[in-house]
RNA sequence: GGGUGUAUAGCUCAGCGGGAGAGCACUACCUUGACAUGGUAGGGGUCACAGGUUCAAUCCCUGUUACACCCA
């Protein structure tokens, strides 16, 4: 006997374990022979993260798709795993070091720190995946992957080398977004521009030898220490005379040219702008156009460096601003200050640290080239976005894509497989100031060594003291100066004469591996194939790539989806997925974005604790309408918790009434109209749910299931079955018992993708009687109920429902006590109505709470009357009903028909409508009118009888 | 500044070129042998505003307003 209520907390863990024990999540579990694959890769959460409501939605949707396709017999792989979240994870560990007052990262050294990060990963890494399990996620955990697994790291190296060899990855000195706190470059996607109240300072720079000044406006006065020019618009009449002259930079004394460049906007400020190529993206471009050498005035921690006058060195950027302004004020060079809203780049994660444009050597991916085929794939529809509108977002970004800075000055991540050494004098780039070191990109140190020996024709010596360390820099310089000297025999001869070690200094070449690591998204971009074993040619790669659907939030279309498209096409030759389902953002009830700082976060696990995983999942699914953010209301979760209870109690009712599954039950052979009807309705519900899942309309699928289970099965079928189940006719009773049990089975299957726990539990419970269950529900086939519709039974039951609802409505309006049984007299019934009444007599009596049903030629006086089809249903309530109230009720109904007739008449009276509307629409309107007229006539007759 | 999206019942949201819907909340009645986490009945809407297209607009188009988000 089932308990009175379902207790998710007591059931979920046990059910989950049963699935695991049955290996039900394994790739291919439950697949039909030769089944086509269905693959989803999980968007890998941060390894040290924890579950938030967005993950819950994301994974609920994936699990619905996965369970549904598994039940349909496909060869399903849901590939789980996590990413290493370079910056975030290293930050956590560094913070731990600080809190525990241990040595800092740099004091500790790379190896020790990495040990600590791995330890932290081991400690906290399982958290989020375990949380997903509580939601019921049926991913193949035996295949769990981590972006820094050896296999995935091999994929990263292979891709890096491949792109490098094609020239699609390169190292260059560029302005990048620099995080001065973490002292690393970040990509432009990791920067958030935030509007803040700032100021615009108008500074005057003296023009050399003229006694005149030129006024520049800036929001960052401290960067003037790195100014290399002043630019004016070439057409600006105010400045025609000064172009080509020089200004003298105050405080610094540098002589800087006044140049003409269209970047200077005559409308803004004075029309003249200071140019600081090392500290501003626009200025950098101006500098390149005019061959100006950038002067970097900051250290990696954004403190003023030795390129600035002594007084400012060591100050951080904000202190430097204050002092520069103070000193300029003292010179009278600050003309005026205006308040201005300015956009300031912040670190996107914490929104605390201001990002600095910073000139450094970094590695870049030529994304523009890779984006072309990725754009084409979506344009050609080989990969579709659902909802489609997100394609515009994708296009907009991909069409304007910038080089992707992939190197990070961190330790936690994939170390870049590049080694640096000096150049030989035979190298075409030898001696070029901007050429940088000779680079060897190789799969490992051994290969790098081979390549280097081949290039140098000498032995190489690996150094580890740091790329910028004095020892390595000196060794490089020594080698290169020896190479230079060797170019001129006379010089070389004299050097050898004076330096006994001259030969030695180019006999061994110093080589140093790049210390930086790659952006985490670089490895995430490979996720759809690296997790399957690539670059090995594994059976999984062959079977499961390309994957089918990617389920994700719009916020990582750029970060992740676009990059997977690029990498998948480049290395696999095929799009990584045919569909990208972009789900909504979950907001709080007021529509605000959930955030820890706002304190409005809804913890999905607390929902699971409070309402059960099934209710939580069902809520998320039911609210997952396409193209719209989701405001999560607790009342909805509660409502779906009640739905779980409802289902549970329906099963309990069946159990109490001997509704046991029957072996060999043939649903299309049942006789009773009520049973024929529910079987057909079940088939329709299954179709609707399947169709909506196929269309990624999870809300509609959930609602269709909900409506059927509650609104049809529980509210009507079970109620209609009651008199049969408690009746005396064994054949009818047995058929109904078997049908009820059969339909419940279909309901459990139908709901399983949404509510896996309670359905599996009921599957087990109802399996204790009747034919034994062959499999767990999770591995059971999706229902196939085609051809079960019975129009005749549908019509009869629809009629019955209308009669019962009509009588109930009148009872309430006439204030008939709920417990009172009243007689029903049917007047003017046709043959079919008579048959229906006979067929449904017991149900009618019970559901409408009737005393008896009889036929009459006249409506008894003092009756309430219901007009239904050709018949009038009279409820003789003389003495009970208030005649005036009944007249009012009828008049109201008549008025409703009047307005209906009027509305239709206006349409049909319109010549244009009759001429132009499709015939079926006109016909429909005519039918509506005829029906309304007939109802009206009977209602008028009913009213007349009361007068 | 550019772009995208959203405005439908008190709330949270579906829907859609031809009859305004659900859940919650609300009102009334009901402890009827599955379920009060329930049942039955009911009230409640100029479908943001202004134009346009159409025989017909909540739905399509244009504009306005408000809000949200993305990009610079």
TrEMBL record:
<dbReference type="Pfam" id="PF08264">
    <property type="entry name" value="Anticodon_1"/>
</dbReference>
<comment type="subunit">
    <text>Monomer.</text>
</comment>
<dbReference type="InterPro" id="IPR014729">
    <property type="entry name" value="Rossmann-like_a/b/a_fold"/>
</dbReference>
<feature type="binding site">
    <location>
        <position position="596"/>
    </location>
    <ligand>
        <name>ATP</name>
    </ligand>
</feature>
<dbReference type="GO" id="GO:0004832">
    <property type="term" value="F:valine-tRNA ligase activity"/>
</dbReference>
<dbReference type="InterPro" id="IPR037118">
    <property type="entry name" value="Val-tRNA_synth_C_sf"/>
</dbReference>
<dbReference type="Pfam" id="PF10458">
    <property type="entry name" value="Val_tRNA-synt_C"/>
</dbReference>
<dbReference type="InterPro" id="IPR019499">
    <property type="entry name" value="Val-tRNA_synth_tRNA-bd"/>
</dbReference>
<dbReference type="GO" id="GO:0005829">
    <property type="term" value="C:cytosol"/>
</dbReference>
<dbReference type="GO" id="GO:0006438">
    <property type="term" value="P:valyl-tRNA aminoacylation"/>
</dbReference>
<dbReference type="InterPro" id="IPR002300">
    <property type="entry name" value="aa-tRNA-synth_Ia"/>
</dbReference>
<feature type="domain" description="Aminoacyl-tRNA synthetase class Ia">
    <location>
        <begin position="492"/>
        <end position="632"/>
    </location>
</feature>
<dbReference type="GO" id="GO:0005524">
    <property type="term" value="F:ATP binding"/>
</dbReference>
<dbReference type="InterPro" id="IPR010978">
    <property type="entry name" value="tRNA-bd_arm"/>
</dbReference>
<keyword id="KW-0067">ATP-binding</keyword>
<dbReference type="InterPro" id="IPR013155">
    <property type="entry name" value="M/V/L/I-tRNA-synth_anticd-bd"/>
</dbReference>
<keyword id="KW-0436">Ligase</keyword>
<comment type="similarity">
    <text>Belongs to the class-I aminoacyl-tRNA synthetase family. ValS type 1 subfamily.</text>
</comment>
<feature type="domain" description="Methionyl/Valyl/Leucyl/Isoleucyl-tRNA synthetase anticodon-binding">
    <location>
        <begin position="675"/>
        <end position="825"/>
    </location>
</feature>
<dbReference type="Pfam" id="PF00133">
    <property type="entry name" value="tRNA-synt_1"/>
</dbReference>
<dbReference type="InterPro" id="IPR009080">
    <property type="entry name" value="tRNAsynth_Ia_anticodon-bd"/>
</dbReference>
<keyword id="KW-0175">Coiled coil</keyword>
<feature type="short sequence motif" description="'HIGH' region">
    <location>
        <begin position="45"/>
        <end position="55"/>
    </location>
</feature>
<feature type="short sequence motif" description="'KMSKS' region">
    <location>
        <begin position="593"/>
        <end position="597"/>
    </location>
</feature>
<feature type="domain" description="Valyl-tRNA synthetase tRNA-binding arm">
    <location>
        <begin position="882"/>
        <end position="946"/>
    </location>
</feature>
<dbReference type="GO" id="GO:0002161">
    <property type="term" value="F:aminoacyl-tRNA deacylase activity"/>
</dbReference>
<dbReference type="InterPro" id="IPR002303">
    <property type="entry name" value="Valyl-tRNA_ligase"/>
</dbReference>
<comment type="function">
    <text>Catalyzes the attachment of valine to tRNA(Val). As ValRS can inadvertently accommodate and process structurally similar amino acids such as threonine, to avoid such errors, it has a 'posttransfer' editing activity that hydrolyzes mischarged Thr-tRNA(Val) in a tRNA-dependent manner.</text>
</comment>
<keyword id="KW-0963">Cytoplasm</keyword>
<feature type="domain" description="Aminoacyl-tRNA synthetase class Ia">
    <location>
        <begin position="15"/>
        <end position="421"/>
    </location>
</feature>
<protein>
    <recommendedName>
        <fullName>Valine--tRNA ligase</fullName>
        <ecNumber>6.1.1.9</ecNumber>
    </recommendedName>
</protein>
<dbReference type="InterPro" id="IPR033705">
    <property type="entry name" value="Anticodon_Ia_Val"/>
</dbReference>
<keyword id="KW-0547">Nucleotide-binding</keyword>
<keyword id="KW-0648">Protein biosynthesis</keyword>
<keyword id="KW-0030">Aminoacyl-tRNA synthetase</keyword>
<feature type="coiled-coil region">
    <location>
        <begin position="880"/>
        <end position="942"/>
    </location>
</feature>
<dbReference type="InterPro" id="IPR009008">
    <property type="entry name" value="Val/Leu/Ile-tRNA-synth_edit"/>
</dbReference>
<dbReference type="InterPro" id="IPR001412">
    <property type="entry name" value="aa-tRNA-synth_I_CS"/>
</dbReference>
